[in-house]
Amino acid sequence: MIICNFGNNYNYELEKLSRLFLPFERIDVVNELIQNDRYAVTKTEFDDYGCKISALLHIGDSNEYAEVFEKTADNFEKVCELSLASCLFECFVNITDYRPQWGILTGVRPARLFISKVNELGLDNAITYFEKTLKVSENKISLLKATAFNEEKIISLSKPNSFSLYISIPFCPSRCSYCSFVSHSVESANDIIPVYLDLLLKEIDYTANCVKDLGLKLETVYIGGGTPTTLTAEQLKLLLDFVLEKFDINGCREFTIEAGRPDTITKDKLIEIKNHNVTRISINPQTLNDNVLENIGRRHTARQFFDSFYLARELGFSNINTDLIAGLPGDTVQSFEDTLDKIILLSPENVTIHSLSMKRASTLTVTGFSPEISAGVTAGLMVDSGRNKLTCAQIYPYYMYRQSKTVGNLENVGYAKPDFEGLYNIFIMDETHTILACGASAATKLKNSDGKIKRIFNFKYPYEYINRFDEQIERKSEIYSFYNCL
Question: What does the pLDDT look like over 3-22, one tens digit per residue?
């Protein structure tokens, strides 16, 4: 599709808006008129009194939408941008007969925007802004209210010297077809895991020294990946012993390990995790439909998930998260609801419902899977059903974020029983405080009291991390320079 844009420089915004309806199509934005079988013409015409905004869209059928408004004293340019996006949005809606529930909102942190608008305008006017200007549905505004205020309570726990620790174990038993994370199958990387782990401990040691020198206070620990439980029980013990030796976890509010793949979970591994003060684990089925599990490359069955969950309960784990994905190929609203009902019967403390995101590097995308608009509608019914069922079970939404190229332009939502919210999830998504990250593909995010943020990226792939480790440590010396500049 070609967007012919005149009178403004909103090229990026208009392209993002168009991708709500055409997520997998090439979109070019030009400043000349090119008419083919799929094009849009957008115009912004200013005069001394105000502005005329118009959009014409031709995709099989044609539709045109226009607005005229007087010049405002404040943020006039932003008003023009939102108005043009709104006009093009309405053209798409009229032609496709599909209205995304998030309207023209494309940001990844809608709760943060909502709170800022509440602080600026008051609750009622903020709701009106989301409904009328951003065209967000009543359903999603209700979800925003529930999550945003829960997030605020948790954000308030952080102090100026707070930080969280993230440790990356970038190995999995197999690669899921929807995944774009940097992870290696155990079969292909088994020989390098001991070398990787040895260097990871050295980076953790360096990071712990930074923490002591700078007087930072640990709030949460999150060991993710990949799948950390691809490590053997002995390797997990080595890693966890070292973390407890190097960091003062007295007062640490949460210690999470992703035991995400049921086919990596054993009694010995869970015992090691339990014996090292880990307070929260994730056991993630994604779906309890065995056919869908096979479709997406998961090497486990629903039965293995149940066995792992029951084992964790038997060993005394009292805070378990389960991840589900709405919109997986082959899943239906009925089978997704069946998964939900079975999960709710287990009474987990956390349930996270992700919407399928079509990442460029994932196997699904590479092999040409391109969901139609109807798939977004189906996924929307799934996430709505998830909210209704979980809320009825007194498992409430507490945080939310969004990703690009998500089926149906939907959201990812964490649900929890009261007092079991996943703190790290909020701290990382909100950029509440510093995150010190160790391991391949990990990203340290430094934040000071003025809100300034600096990122330090680790090398992406395990082989690169190993071969350039000294360089890696040199990069992390920037932690000192950042804090010494305060």
Answer: 999 998 899 999 989 988 88
Using a 10 angstrom Cβ sphere, with 0-12 exposed, 13-18 middle and 19 or more buried, the burial of residue 334 is exposed
User: Is residue 107 reached through a cis peptide bond, with omega within 30 degrees of 0 on the bond before it?
Assistant: no
Q: Is 30 among the domain residues?
A: yes
Report if residue 236 sits inside a domain.
Answer: yes
Q: Does residue 123 fall inside a structural domain?
A: no
Contact 129, 449 (CB under 8 A): no
pTM score above 0.85: yes
- Whether 180 contacts 362, CB under 8 Å: yes
What total of structural domains would you count in the chain?
A: 2
Decide if 467 is inside a domain.
Answer: yes
Decide: 324 and 339 in contact? Cβ < 8 Å.
yes
Strand order of the β-sheet with 434-438 is 396-401, 412-416, 350-355, 320-326, 280-282, 254-258, 217-225, 162-169, 434-438, 443-447, 453-457
Report d(CA 354, CA 358) in Å as an integer.
Answer: 12
**Where are the extended beta strands (E) located within 32-191?**
38-46, 50-59, 61-70, 162-169, 171-172, 184-185
Q: CB within 8 A of 138, min separation 6: which ones?
A: 131
Q: Are 442 and 428 in contact (CB under 8 A)?
A: no
197 and 336 together in one domain: yes
Last residue of a domain, one of 80, 97, 114: 97
φ, ψ for residue 438 (rounded to 5)?
-125, 140
CATH number at residue 249: 3.80.30.20
CB count in 10 Å sphere of residue 90: 20
Q: What is the pLDDT of residues 316-369, one digit of tens each?
A: 999 999 999 999 988 999 999 999 999 999 999 999 999 988 654 444 444 444
The verdict on 80 and 184 lying in the same domain is: no
Provide CB contacts within 8 A for 164, sequence distance 6+.
Answer: 218, 219, 220, 221, 222, 424, 427, 428, 433, 434, 435, 436
What is the distance between the alpha carbons of residues 425 and 364, in angstroms, rounded to a whole number? 26
Instruction: Give the range of the structural domain holding residue 57, as residue numbers without chain letter.
Output: 1-97
What's the rounded Cα separation, in Å, for the pair 442 and 448?
A: 20
Is 398 found in the same domain as 306? yes
Residues 44, 157 share a domain:
no
CATH number (domain holding residue 70)? 3.30.160
Tell whether 26 and 159 lie within a shared domain.
no
Q: Tens digits of per-residue pLDDT, 397-410?
A: 999 999 877 888 89
Which residues have C-beta within 8 Å of that of residue 188, sequence separation ≥ 6? none
Q: Which has the closest alpha carbon to 422: 176, 243, 234, 257? A: 257
User: What is the pairing mode between strands 350-355 and 396-401?
Assistant: unpaired
CB 387 within 8 A of CB 393: no
Residue 333 shares a structural domain with residue 439: yes
